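Support request from a user on the community tier.

User writes: "When I paste my structure tokens into the form, the page sometimes reloads and wipes my input. The last time it worked, I copied everything first. Here is what I submitted, just in case something in the input itself triggers the reload:"
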């Protein structure tokens, strides 16, 4: 999360750690939990939704709709505990 935040803010991790207060970091962490802004959510998911819509618009009427997962790059989703550990590691 911290790396994604630094990237989105155009700062290095060192700059972000030096300039951000703990309270501000906690606010961003809470926001990230509600509205993730990592690459999967910012790039992969919107592209997959567009592809899914096109595929489902052109599929045969007697077939099931394609699920969104069919168009996402394979990535294992980390657990909440893993995300928290990663956030604390990046501090």
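"...and here is what came back when it finally went through:"
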């Amino acid at each position: 999360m911290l790396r994604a935040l630094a990237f989105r803010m155009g700062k290095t991790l060192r700059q972000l750690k030096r300039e951000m207060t703990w309270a501000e970091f906690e606010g961003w962490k809470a926001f990230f939990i509600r509205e993730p802004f990592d690459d999967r959510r910012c790039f992969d998911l919107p592209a997959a939704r567009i592809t899914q819509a096109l595929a489902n618009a052109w599929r045969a009427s007697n077939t099931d709709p394609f699920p969104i997962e069919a168009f996402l790059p394979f990535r294992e989703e980390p657990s909440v505990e893993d995300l928290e550990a990663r956030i604390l590691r990046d501090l």
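Agent notes: The reload is a front-end session timeout and is unrelated to the input. Residues 12 and 18 are 10 Å apart (CA to CA). The chain has a mean pLDDT of 83. Escalated to web team.
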